[in-house]
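EI: anyone free to look at a 1499-residue chain?
SC: sure, send it
EI:
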Amino acid sequence: MNNLNFLVDVLKESPVFKTLEKNVKPGRTVCASGLSTINKSNIIYALCRLKGVTAFCLASDEKEAQTLCNDLSCMGLRAYVYPVRDFNFLDFQSRSHEYEHARLKVLLKLLNHECDVAIACVDAAAQLTVPRNVLEQSVIEFEEGRELSLEKATKALTLLGYERFDAVEGSGQFSLRGGILDFFMPDSDYPVRCEFWGDEITDLSYFDIETQRRFKKADKITLSPSTEIVIEDRAALADKIEHKAKLLRSKNSAKAKEKLFSEAELIRSGAMIANADKFINQIYDKPESLFDYLDRNTLVFASEFTAIQERGKSMDFISNETLMQGFEDGTLCRGFDRFALTFNECTEFLQSHGTIVLENFVHGSMPIKLSEIISFSTKQLSAWGGSYKQLKEDVDGLFTPESKGVIFAGTERAAKNLCDTFNADGINAVYSEGADKISKGELLVMQGALSAGFEYPSQKFFAITYSQVSYRPEKSKKKKKKTGKEIYSLSELAPGDYVVHNVHGIGVFGGIRKIDTHGVIKDYIKIDYAKGDVLYVPVTQLDMVAKYIGSKEDSRVKLNRLGSGDWQKAKARVKTSVKDIAKELIELYSQRMKAKGYAFSADNEWQRDFELSFEYDETPDQLRCCEEIKHDMMRSSPMDRLLCGDVGFGKTEVALRAAFKCIADSKQCALLCPTTILAWQHYQTVIKRFEGYPVRVELLSRFRTAKQQKEILQKLKRGEIDMIVGTHRLVQKDVEFRDLGLAIIDEEQRFGVAQKERFKELCKNVDVLTLSATPIPRTLNMAMSGLRDMSVIEEAPTNRQPVQTYVLEHDDAVINEAIRRELRRGGQVFYLHNNVETISSCAAKIQEAVPEAKIAIGHGKMKEGELSEVWRQMLEQEIDVLVCTTIIETGVDLPNANTLIIENADCMGLSQLHQLRGRVGRSSRRAYAYFTFRRNKVLTEIQQKRLAAIREFTEFGSGFRIAMRDLELRGAGNIMGAQQHGHMESVGYDMYLKLLDEAVSEEKGEQNVTKDLDCLIDISVDAHIPESYVESLTLRLDVYRRIADIRSNEDADDVIDELQDRFGKIPNSVLGLIDIALVRNKAYSMGIYEIRQNGTTLMLFVNELKSPQVADLLIALGGKAKLVAGAKPAVPFGAKYRIIDFPLSNCINSGIDTVGVLTQYQPLVLNEYIGNGQPWDLDRIHGGVHVLPPYQTASGADWYSGTANAIYQNIAFVDRYDPEYVVVLSGDHIYKMDYNKMLEYHKAKNADATIAVLDVPKEEASRFGIMITDEDDNIIDFEEKPKNPRSTLASMGIYIFTWKKLKAYLIANENDKEASKDFGKNIIPDMREAGEKLVAYRFDGYWKDVGTIDSLWEANMDLINPNIPIDLYDTSWKIYSRNPVMPPQSIGKNAQVQNSMVTEGCVIDGSVEFSMISDGVTVEEGAEILDSILMPGAVVKKGAKVEYAIVGENTVIGENAQIGARPETIEDKDSWGVAVVGNNLTVSDGSVVAPKAIIYENI
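SC: here you go
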């Protein structure tokens, strides 16, 4: 803080000031004249410092109040402006509270002696408010260690007018979660978090609204009210009102009485009423005004008394008008009619207290008795605009060895720079942080800025200031840069909303369900799909679910059916379409990247000078954007940047700095605007801003005649114009630039695609900067998907006041009063009536109601010329009320229009409402926005959300957030043009972006890292968030999403910190969730896509049998975990098959033409391979082959919890075909079998179930489920993997059932909560115990289970063993498969191939023995393949040796590498096994892969 005590010192030397000081006594009123605003500030400052007391100043208007406040703050006093507020006697639906909060802040600071100077206009000071003693008593102290019951604290908050929310986002709100109470007080900079343990406060801290995390301790907090109307005893108040109402006698009283009684009833019921202001005299015995808060020794100043008097009279007049109006329509009545002091009462207070009147020059008569008039002689110096030359001239004229001076240079940086420049010029200047005295011949340069400079000639003192930089006290903490990615937060979800699941498609959100499985509680999200299907998604997989954002709110969204393939098709369609877009985008982008643009040179002296001459203080955001843009301009590839900033946030300044940079390098700059009037306004701004620089600016629009246009075009071509501002006219064919360097597009959302494209053509190698307040979603996406660079200005410049926003039913009385009120203060009104047909009658109606107003009409169907004329009249203030359509959305700046009234606001998009509201509030005057909707209209939920949102976002700077929210509410409409639109609807916005993102990175040639962690974990761990921990559903969803997004230990720590901070001690079940998230990550990185618990063992499902980490894990778990290979049925087998080919071929050969494949291991991989079943002749209209991933129509678990449950979930599927018998097969066995024969046997035996069995060697029997039969092969007992088998008949996992019977057992098993839902463990034993007839069907032939690596390798080797009876080429029983079409295999002249299977498309130049070579494999010369399997596309380079190994698809084995070894070469037989190299890997030259090793990454 600057120490400016030398200002006191300078004044003390002045005899005039001494006289003034002597005359300042309580009860004595004196006048000091000859003072401009800056001198007034100086005198207030000096007297406060000398007398050591606080001061109060009545200012003549808001602008002066703000200027005084800025000056005094800069001088180091704690100064605050006390604003006027609007009393609310009507019951609005809702309104914003900033002004009430600002007033309370000042009152509280006065009470706590934290305010040196309070400044107010007379109407604000005169308004009645909460009495001082009530305010003192209504505060509650919070401090650590203090006893205070939570209940009492929340009661107090409600009483003091705080509203309860899920999470605190603005002042006047509170939230309660468990033992944690958050609240945001009007007089505090940050919200407070208070943690209770029982009834004791254990922690008290401030937290950051953006992150919701604590950041610093708070010692002691005094809870202050959030409203000026604190109703302590509702019943007593209601009684008072009723008592008053009964006394009413006047002629209009019937209406008023009725109103009062209903209001009393509401108050008694505890409802929050919007118009409590009406009862201020009943609530407080004696309401007080700001004057009552001043101490006896407070110095009272009044500035420009005549102006104060005028304002006071107008205040009296307005309050009388309001009362009359209120009496007439029954909103007010006797006894409810005093809301402010009259001006006379104010004057009495000033007279009796004693006032120092500060005047510019003395008027004849003063309505207040003066004891003394003291004249000062001062000179005001014009502020310094930033040009050094001008400043030096001023200083040369003022600074002599006799005089003393100070220069306020704005920022610290500027002050130091200026000091150096002065010294270099031989002027002796000193940089100072502050001084008590200043002596002759001294010139101080300081930071800070006043409203103007001044000179006291008699004291030979002068102060020059850089033009007004509004002084800002302590900077708020810098917001973390938020990227726009996290828009579609799930927290907005309510049951009934549409959601998209990555794998299953679009469904309806049905809330969170707790499901208890085997005593372990887990949370699931319920999603309803078409035809009554239900999916339960474990919350640990919440990142697979996103809110569906489609195109329109009400359009019917087509729900997907589970397992129907629609979703996959829709995704595939969109994939291909986004591929094209991605191609275009990338092409455009790479052209831009490749294109050699112009690299601008670094900032020069002029540029710095130009930037310093900006009259406001830049916000940090503005500076950051400038840096980003300049950095882009200095690169040689052309810039394409989007600059988003709210209406009036200084985008233009940022753009002009870029333009200046371009012009400084002698290149031309073009600024393209959507409308003539906007172009004209920009043109004015540009001329003003470039004043004093040799820059030639021209305007090209309809405001120029044809002749002028022609002339401008010629100059442009010759390069005689540096900067051109224009409308669409700039895009026409005849416009040629000599050397265009930068193109700026303003309000880009208003241009059509064609115009933009034409502009892009023009600017192929030119830097482009696009400005937009609410970026249209498409550009938002492009910026977000990294195709364009985006800079965002989120901070409002200081001294933009929030717009007081009301949401109400349309009420002519309120609206007409609002118009009158604006006219009374000399302002203008926008009245938005969005219907061209009825706009004239609407204007006539207003004219009738407010005859004194000058009214005009503006809409888009008018000719451009007429419209421009209307705008001109508005700018020249010849019109009071403009009745218009949404044409005002686009940025015409009318600082004098400060009331906006919108009819049917519920029918407009959010960003539109926001744009419109940005049209008012562009000056230091308070602005009002009234959003009205038709009387008695029931708003839809969307409309309510919208109006609530716009009220929430009253502060400036919400444009960007609004675009995000709007996308959510309005859907992503016309983003991409029609063709894209359809695609987007079918998958939802989020998925669309995801696919586009993937397509783009694919086009860019980046490795497509799947961003979704798709590892499913289903283990018995308590993993859920108890309601007692996070009550609100929306917050709970948010937390689930945060946990599902955990990707590393740091993330987990961060989430744990945040949860502890926001919700208190973390329960174990939540830590369980976090652990699962971490395990899920780790597992995914190791290639495990599912972990499931089976009794006491863990099953790990892996994509590829590859990872040594998994191998280590298995060893560490010591047999507790099993490895289950990838999407098993789709694993390649026998060089040209996949395992699933065998059961499918058996079915079709046996005459079965309806097959359901039950799978939950990567159903998509399987689906992709099987397709419509055509290779197996299963592409039937009725029947055919169906991949059935888990889904379910009844309640219960969502994933298949066992083979029995899997069939149970598909009863409906089976019933569609109404079969008598069903065959149940296992999908991972290799064999040939005629199921028809087995069915005949089943019928002949009249069995209920027939089970195929295989006679196995005794020593292997304990690996299988064993059937014990009698001599007729009836099954009498069944043992699952017995240690001492009683028989050698092993179940092959092939069953035939009579469907009616099986169905009954499946349903019974499903309803048995204890059952493990397994076929072998439940259904077969249950049927046997119930005495059903079970028979064994002996199979004689080849059968192999390929569930492990070793068995997969053996089964492949069996195919080339002549002694094993499986013939794949038997034409009577063919095995069908889907094979890629490839040329025949080529065997080189030096190649040796023995006892091997070599498929189409292979190129063999080395030696291959006893091996399986799949399609497209290359074996180079000198390479050896022995007893191995090479999957499709593998390459083995020269000299490499592959023995007893499996090499994955598309893997490259480098030269001279050694993979695996023969068993006879290994001494320790236990350490030998088949070596495995995973898919898509590269083994470098000379590497060695040991036997039994599993390689999952490049080596």
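EI: Confidence is low (pLDDT under 50) at residues 468-490, 953-982, 1122-1127, 1192-1197.
SC: 👍
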